[in-house]
Amino acid sequence: MELRSVCTVLMSLYLSVSGIMFNLQPNTQKCLKEELQQNVPVIGEYEISEAPGQKVDYIVKDSKGHTLAQKEDITKGKFSFNTESYDTYEICFVSRIPQPQRGLTQEISLVTKHGVDVKNYDAFGDAANLKPIEKELQRLEDLSNEIVRDFAYMRKREEEMRDTNESTNNRVLYFSIFSMFCLLGLATWQVLYLRRYFKAKKLIE
User: How far is CA 37 from CA 42, 110, 158, 183, in A?
Assistant: First the structure.
């Protein structure tokens, strides 16, 4: 029982839920970025304080500029999308006000969930006739699989970075050897040239 409690605590530390609250100045844009793996469902819930005459839009894009979700003149609601590949995804909120009007600072509350926390285990458990403990065990199993995938990807990235580092070191070594031979060749040419020059001027025999 104690071991299970420890495992539950460790799993709960690995959360894919993030909530943030920030201020958006009039006629400005603020973006939040996060790296996500491929095929990860993401949902977000936002709420924006009211300001007469002002409008706020949101847009979700990847690093290549592809739009995954977008909506104009928002106040409160949700959005969702699936990641297409491992990439950095950004959620931007854009404030718009008419030119003569003096704008007000708006407060934006955003809660995002991805991965395991998107799945509705209550509905899944009811459909599969699972007991509460079985639903919790299923959630922990999915969470542990997600952690394993993250660690596997981190290991792959570490191997790629190590290979890149070794390749760079080899290139630097070859370039250093090439530079040394070039300097030796240049020094030899200078000595021979000066020797011929001094002989021509009869300064040396």
Answer: 11, 21, 16, 49
CATH superfamily of 16-115: icosahedral virus (2.60.120.660)
The token duo for 51 is: 């300001």
d(CA 115, CA 181): 56
Buried-state track 47-80, b at ≥16 Cβ within 10 A, e below 16: ebeebeebebebbbbbeeeeebeeeeebeeeebe
Model pLDDT for residues 15-27, shown as the tens digit of each residue = 456 678 989 999 8
**CB contact set of 40 (below 8 Å; sequence gap of 6+):** 82, 83, 114, 115
- What are the sequence ranges of the domains in the chain? 16-115
pLDDT digits (tens, 9 = 90+) for 152-203: 888 888 998 999 999 999 999 999 999 999 999 999 999 998 888 888 877 7
